[in-house]
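**Reference record**
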Amino acid sequence: WVRPEDAELHRRLIQEWIVRWRAGDEDMLPLLRSAGGRLLPFVEEAFRQGDRSLVTLLPAGHVRFLHHLGAEHPEVARALAESQIDETEPASDSLEDPLAGLDIAGLAKLAGAKDTVKGLAVRAVHALSRIKDSGAIDALETLTHARQPSVRSAALRFFHRLADKERAMRVSFEVLQLETRSDVVLSLMRRLAHAHYAPALPLLIERLSHHDSHMRQHAHRALLAWGSDAAGPLRHSAKKARPDRRPTLLALAAELET
């Protein structure tokens, strides 16, 4: 049994996730896929309006409920065929929220556990972000180093919104030294550069000589965003750099000074 106010909260959350997913926020994908039966009314409404995109978010056990809309629709058939969930798996219409009743410690444990389904783990991070307590911010900081990439991304995004600037930059710098995803690395470098977070400057300069060309490009863009204040440290680094790397450092320093 679900209280009416809880059902309404679920509905609003799913509606928000759909809007953000359609706007290109890929972090919403695991959340939507974890919604199960709660997603059906939204899929059906969109389907009737000619939008088939949400069908692919449903597991096969729920897609079959759309057959009344037209069993011959190729989108339904394709969703059934491509679903990674066994079609024989019974569909659950339960609205019981696995996060219900969990405190900060419980949500953090669930989000960080290696065997937690991705969508549920990200939902736990979202739940933490809505708790107005310093302990929730501490938990989000810990989760920025989580095993699951989607959890790290969600935790870092909310941590930046809730923590003070200095703390947020410190954690971003810590995550940058561990992160390997190219798009996340670029985002962190830019964030640190725009904030002129001094401890990050030597690392950005060092990565101009990274073995990965993409990493070198990211570092170059970040230092351009840093601006002329990075020129002096670049010239200083050039004095100690290998002869084959000095021209790159000096050229960027000159570019920043013009």
User: Anything to note?
Assistant: Residues 4-22 form the longest helix (19 residues). The radius of gyration is 23 Å. Residues 79-95 have pLDDT under 50 and may be disordered.
